[in-house]
Amino acid sequence: MKADYHVHYYIDSCAADEMTFPNIEKKALELGLDEISVLKHHSRRMPNGEAAWVCWKRVKPEEWQRYLDEYAAYRPEKLVIHSGVESELCSEDGEINISDEEAAKIDMIALSVHYMPDLAGLKMDFLLYPDLNFCPAQNNDEGRRELARWREKAAAFGAENAIKGLVNGYCNAIRAHKKVRTLSHMYDGLLPLRTYTFDVDGVGEKRCIELFEPLFAVMRDNEVRWELTGGAVPFAGILRRADEMGVRFIATADAHFLDSGWGPFTHHDAAEAVIDRLGLRRARVSL
Asked: Are strands 225-228 and 180-183 parallel, antiparallel or unpaired?
């Protein structure tokens, strides 16, 4: 089988105008895929309480309805195409950034961590993106002071506590929201915490594996897939242990363009190669 459950749609500003259903289907067939999910970003709130934060935006009802209508109207010729959203994990208690009412309108949720979720004992009150070069307007004295404050707060909370909180959040979200079928751009599961300056690498691979095992069991029991791109996997042992415990994997290009630009669909095979190189097992999503 060859599938990709993370293909972006042109309605979102992060995706190219060429990412329409006919173009996506044509390119997917060229890549040898036989099943995909075409996703609409869906965030009912932003961490700053405004309509936009960094490069993410609160969902616009008219664009959401347009996506639903265009999906319902399209008739694929040779490809299985599921409807879906990419939405965020918001907190350790399992809150996600789409209501159950709206989630009922699509086939699946690809659950992402675009910003630090609220953890028990650590509220996400750092409203800049940690890589200040990613947001030049914030790369100033005030932004650097805020980043230094957050670094101190993250260090005091501790990387191991942050891993436990993130794992709890994923587990609670999967149990509470049955439309969650994949965890998005996971790498070794630690990228969000590295981004938010936690010294997870100092915890060590062996201990990280132990901390992730509850998530492996919940993913296995609920048939939620671990998504991999072609990117680096620093602690590959985490993935191998997940595979041993019954977690299954899926490759994606996280496509925003067809052939070029950031995240082209043609990079799908690079993700397949990572799965093969690590000796991991694939599985489709179960809907």
From this structure: parallel
> CB under 8 Å to 97, separation ≥6 — which residues?
42, 43, 44, 45, 87, 88, 89, 90
| Segment 167-177, tens digit of pLDDT | 999 999 999 99
**Average pLDDT estimate for 17-32:** 98
- What gap in Å lies between CA 170 and CA 88, rounded to an integer? 10
pLDDT tens-digit map of 28-87: 999 999 999 999 999 999 999 999 998 899 999 999 999 999 999 999 999 999 999 999
109 in Cβ contact with 122 (< 8 Å): no
What backbone phi and psi angles, to 5 degrees, belong to 272?
-60, -40
> Strand, coil or helix: what is 153?
helix
Is 183:219 a contact under the CB 8 Å cutoff? Answer: yes
Buried (b) or exposed (e) across 221-237, using 16+ Cβ within 10 A? eebbbbbbbbeebebbe
Considering the entire predicted model, what is its pTM? 0.96
Tokens for 262? 């950031």
Count Cβ neighbours within 10 Å for each residue of 189-206 and write b for 16 or more, e otherwise: bbbbbbbbbbebeebebe
What is d(CA 245, CA 221) in angstroms, rounded to the nearest whole number? Answer: 10
Residues 6+ apart with CB under 8 A from 168: 92, 120, 214
pLDDT tens digits along 114-149: 999 999 999 999 989 999 888 888 889 999 999 999
Which residue is associated with the tokens 């095979």?
269
Residue 132: its pLDDT value, please?
A: 87
Spacing of C-alpha 23 from chain mean position: 23
Q: Decide: 267 and 9 in contact? Cβ < 8 Å.
A: no
DSSP 176-225: H-TTEEEE-S-TTTTHHHHHTT--HHHH-HHHHHHHHHHHHHHHHHHTPE
